[in-house]
Amino acid sequence: MPFLIFIFTFLIYLNTTAPGILVPDSPEFIASSFSFGIAHPSGYPFYLLLGKVFSYIPIGNLAWRMNLMSALFASLVIICVYILSNRVIEVTLPENKTEIINKSFAFIGALVLAFSHSFWPYAVNTEAYSTSSFLLSVAILLLILCVSTEEKIQAGTAFRSQSEKKVKRLYLLSLFAGLLLAFHSVNLIYVVLFVGFVVVKTTYMDSKNTWIVRKK
User: Fold this and answer.
1) 93 lies in a domain?
2) Average per-residue pLDDT for the chain
3) 214 lies in a domain?
4) How far is the C-alpha of 202 from the C-alpha of 147, rounded, in Å?
5) 112 — pLDDT class (breaks 50, 70, 90)
6) Is 131 exposed, middle or buried (0-12, 13-18, 19+ CB in 10 A)?
7) How far is CA 115 from CA 80, 106, 110, 144, in A?
8) Which residues of 67-88 are buried (b: 16+ CB within 10 A; e: fewer)?
9) How many domains, the chain?
10) What is the mean pLDDT of residues 186-196?
11) Domain contains 110
12) Cα(first)–Cα(last) distance of the chain, in Å?
């Protein structure tokens, strides 16, 4: 399902992508990315580096290539939203709900975001919102995976295996938290919240009783 959602949304975004430059930030981002320059505060260093990579795509003009980057990351955001929504629905709806109903709700919710007035325009234009949203959504997903617990699969090896997985996810979460800071300084708010949540969760809360636990 996530792959189908990506293909569906990306094809629509691709067909509605702006063929050139739009205002207000698009000209600045395109020029800064192409010339390794610095945009308006906070500079958007990581975003401009990604834009430079996309500028080497051998099709279309420079503006279209940057717009393509927005479309790609916007589609990835929708996948993350679908996965997060499906996980929340599974643990909040009654157990008698079927899996197809849960996935249908998550699918509808993801598409509502994908084609909403506040999301779609930024998915087809050179703006930083879709890329920033992707980093944030992946960080939230990793955060949930880091602090959630799953029931044992194999006696004797499950605990160690789960611990190793959580450590790896924590490393990935740290990576994406750093990328968020390299993207925009305002993301420091999210990083502080991530750290605080992990500390509180692992220190004071019983992970088996939290709403984010997935039990089967």
Assistant:
1) yes
2) 82
3) no
4) 7
5) very high
6) buried
7) 15, 15, 9, 26
8) bbbbbbbbbbbbbbbbbbbbbb
9) 1
10) 86
11) yes
12) 21
Domain that holds residue 139: 2-209
Per-residue pLDDT averaged across 157-165, rounded? 61
Burial class of residue 206 (count of CB atoms within 10 Å of its CB; 0-12, 13-18, 19+):
exposed
Cis amide leading into 24 (omega within 30)? yes
Q: What percent of the chain has pLDDT over 70?
A: 84
Bond into 26 cis (ω within 30)? no
Is the distance from CB of 32 to CB of 134 less than 8 angstroms? Answer: no
pLDDT at 216 over 90: no
**Which pair of tokens denotes residue 123?**
């998915």
Nearest CA-CA partner of 29 in 72, 69, 59, 56 = 69
pLDDT at 215: 43
What is the structure's pLDDT at 110? Answer: 94
> Is the residue at 216 inside a domain?
no
Q: Quickly list DSSP for the chain.
A: -HHHHHHHHHHHHHHHS-SS--SSSHHHHHHHHHTT---STT--HHHHHHHHHHTT-SSS-HHHHHHHHHHHHHHHHHHHHHHHHHHHHHHHS-TTS-HHHHHHHHHHHHHHHHTSTTTHHHHSSS-SHHHHHHHHHHHHHHHHHHH-----SSTTTHHHHHHHHHHHHHHHHHHHHHHHHHH-GGGHHHHHHHHHHHHHHHHHS-GGGSTT----
The whole-number average pLDDT for the span 160-180 is 79
